Amino acid sequence: MSAKSVPDRIRVAMLTQRYIPFTGGAEKQLSAVLQRLPDLGIDATVITRRHDDSPPYSLVNGIPVHRIDVHGPRVIASLSYTAQALRLLRRFGPDVVHAHELLSPTTTAIAYKVMCGTAVAAKVLRGGSLGDIAVLEGSRIGRLRLSRLLQRVDAFSVISGEIDAELADHGVPSERRRFIPNGVDLARFHPVEPDRKIHIRAGLGLPDGPIAMFAGRLEREKRIDRLVALWPHVRSVIPAATLVVAGTGSLAHALAAARTEGIILAGAQADLCDWYAAADVFVLPSEAEGLSNAMLEALATGLPCVATKVGAAPELLSQGLGCLVDVDDDSGLVSALIATLQGLPSYSAQHARDVVVSNYSIEVTASRLAQLYRELVYVKKNRNTAIKFR
Fold it and tell me: GO MF terms on file (predicted)?
């Protein structure tokens, strides 16, 4: 980059609906990236909603986090979020605002851009029928709001081909769509030797026999209730098969009450490394996704995956890393699980890890984001200089 220089350190405000201690995939991903950005010359702060008794301000792993109290009906809550976030943004004075989700975070980022001219990046968290774009398209006001957001966001950090296609279909040119997928910590998630797997299983109290694993929020959009209902069909062919369900959510009590044989409800787990290492197959039957962090972690651990054809799963699993099924294909899901569990001896754990190493390391993700921020600042300082996003 030439012309007016970019400062050595760039200030970025991350706008998000939820953050740590909420431990969903998007929150854990953002936290992991934030811990690496300071070494790349990026000073970030997080502005989020306050969902529990966490303090209004705290340092989380060294990153400043501001939590906004938001109450009332959805429209009032959204306006309150924007008003309070704008005050915090004026105080912080970022060089770039990065909104995580196209709803209130991006609306707020655009409002700040109108006030101060600050560059805006936006991350669409998921695509498909439940995705950010679909939600906004559900009403006339939402469609107007979407049109303005898509025009005014300077760059989109895109995590899947599905989301990229949705943005392209809505007229967002390629130079404003940057492929920056989620990343995984390769030092934490890695394959283990057979003897080590046996030892880990014993420590977790898991049985012998093939183990499939689900990790994520226990919500209907993840279709974990359908997976649990279908598990007896898998057991009818592979009687020793066990399904481990790690996570919590609104379906937790119903799943526990079902008492389905061959299923272990592990609850919320702060660290999933050993659970992946103990498993043989990862399964994700979701109705909608962006780029599943749990799937990336499972692949980095060397597990084959069975997943529905949503989000980034088709891109990942098309490389011989598992099976894809349609969302409503219950028999296909059962067949894919049986085939994958029976085909374990021929599966290459190293191939799965190699794919993740090549494209989805957290260090690469952080580096690409830092480069995007620098380019956005460069463009702002050199309004008349054309720049081609790589």
Answer: hexosyltransferase activity
The SS3 assignment for 101 reads: coil
Residue ranges of alpha helices (H) inside the chain are: 25-34, 74-92, 104-116, 132-136, 140-152, 161-169, 194-204, 224-237, 252-258, 273-278, 293-300, 313-317, 330-342, 349-359, 362-381
How many domains is the chain built from?
2
Do 204 and 145 fall within a single domain? no
CA of 155: how far to CAs of 8, 17, 216, 377, in Å? 21, 20, 29, 12
Burial 122-149 (b: 16+ CB within 10 A, else e): bbbbbbbeebbbbbbeeeeebeebbeeb
Assessment of whether the complete model's pTM goes beyond 0.85 = yes
Distance between CA atoms of residues 292 and 159, nearest Å:
10
Tens digits of per-residue pLDDT, 239-252? 999 999 999 999 99
CA distance 82 to 92: 15
Claim to verify: residue 165 and residue 214 sit in the same structural domain: no
Q: Residue 334: which residues within 8 A CB-CB, separation 6 or more?
A: 230, 233, 234
pLDDT tens-digit readout, 135-156? 999 999 999 999 999 999 999 9
CB neighbour class for 226 (10 Å; exposed up to 12, middle 13-18, buried from 19): middle
Q: What is the DSSP letter of 363?
A: H
Instruction: Note the residue count of the chain.
Output: 390
Tokens describing residue 130: 């439940």
- Rounded to whole angstroms, how far apart are CA atoms 294 and 27? 12
Those residues of the chain that have pLDDT short of 50 are 2-3, 384, 386-390
Task: Map tokens 């109108």 to a residue.
Answer: 114
State which residues form the domain around 367.
Answer: 10-183+361-381
Strands, sheet with 281-284, edge to edge from the N-terminal-most edge strand: 263-267, 242-246, 211-215, 281-284, 305-308, 322-325
Tell me whether strands 57-60 and 63-68 are parallel, antiparallel or unpaired: antiparallel
Residue 2 resides in a domain: no
Task: Say which CATH number the domain at 143 has.
Answer: 3.40.50.2000
